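Quick one - first record:
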Amino acid sequence: MRAILIAAKRLALAKTRLLPALPSLTERGRLAEAMFRDVLSAAYNARTPARVTVVTCDPVLMRLAQGTGAMVIDEGYPRGLNAAVGLATMKLAAMGMSCICTLLSDIPLVTGDDIDAAFAAMPTEPRAVTLVPSRDFSGTNILVRQPPEVIGTQFGRFSLVRHLNDCRQAGIACRIVRLERPALDLDEPADLQEFERRHSLTHTQAHLARLSLVHS
């Protein structure tokens, strides 16, 4: 069985690198919530997975996820992204999930078709990984693993290289798939400019337009 896993930080800790463009902690939290809504919507538009799961310790995001019927895994406290994903991966594997697509919660342009494409790109070997890189080809914005614990996650700076190295060292089939929409994560002020260039009908677009950071 296939599952989507959305990993989301506590809102109060999210998007600190956007501080020059968004000095308000409250507004950065609201932006993170808007992006989460967009990613969650894309997960439900994907045809491949049998389950949508969210791992977080943020009560607002947990309520949002539960309201859509998603399975919520409460990490209890901010463990860090990789530890949270590891906890959720272990639980999903114990439930019989054979393949997990992990999405970061700050890729608001992602669509259900993108998620299906990431699943479809999996190598045919029993142990396999698909990596969808960030726009600068350094990070990993979507990670598909079969079986779920075939490698640990290495989200953070230069995660693409670290995930590739882990696969090569363990002899695991790995494929990189360039997908334009999920490649854009909103981490820095320049990312907001690129996001505006790709005008979209998203919660994120509406929120930034309200702040006059992008045009509606």
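second record:
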Amino acid sequence: MSLRILHIEDDKLDAELVKETLEGEGIACDVSQVMSRNDFVTAIDGGSFDIILSDFSLPDFDGLSALDIARKRCPDIPFIFVTGKMGEELAIETLKKGAIDYVLKTGIARLASSVQRALREASERSERMKAAGELKKSHEQLRSLAAHLQSAREEERTNIAREIHDELGQALTALKIDLSLMAERLRKDNGNFAVAEQMKAEVDVVNSIIVAVKRICTELRPAILDYLGLGAAIEWQAGEFQKKSGIECEVTINPENITADKDQSTVLFRIFQEALTNVLRHSKATKVRAALIRQANFIMLEIADNGVGIPEDLFIKTNSFGLLGMRERAYICNGELRINGSPGKGTTITAIIPADTL
């Protein structure tokens, strides 16, 4: 298969010399020679070339202009200067601007090896770009899958919480009432206080089960998030965290009636939960400050603690699944997660979701 060459050269003898040199080295050539800017642009737009060779000085055109046009219109095609003379400074400038090499006509024997190297590098670059594109596509597919799984998981948690509350919760409440009534009747009608007390103990067991059911439902999907909104859910979670951990948790919400759709509320609430979990496990903090703020263009959730601070290398560790999970949740809503921390100065996690998706 012939090598398709676009050759910018105003001297036909020099053009023939280039072709003969390459073919003498076993490189079959299909050369298109152009001499002017217009012909060069037309050739680039209308043809498909493997490499561009260019003289540096032409009557109404120059090599740097040709190189600039080529970098803009066909940046993947290798560009080599084949010229009569070129100073060292000018040669370095052409290489900085994107030329692969320069070959002096007095040393034309070097052209074949230069062309082969340029084509080899172009092929390797194309392969790298292809691999990078495939990797990016795979990454995007994985993120889409992760977003779908997150959404499905939240939906499943909501359904399970609803089923537990409606079915098991109601059944347990009915059982509690029946046991209480039976215990009261035994006490009044038969005076069987021992059995009545035993049944009362069973009522206490049922009570504890009801409390556990409510706790499980809340952990699966807090009803307050769906019925009272994100701000109320953040305040409730902060209060629960403070009661269980003993770590002071201060919350600021501005404005008080922040609105967000279901997906965004879920994302920010889960990020808040995960951030508090990290505080409890790792920070050794005594205080947490959280702020939920709505501006014209975004909603921001910021969680700052006064703990030992997150090590910088933890920001990029691939097995830091809590941090990765928060980042992916923010990404689901086209947002971003910022993590700032240093030893002894605490950690701040900031989630920002654009308001134009609301």
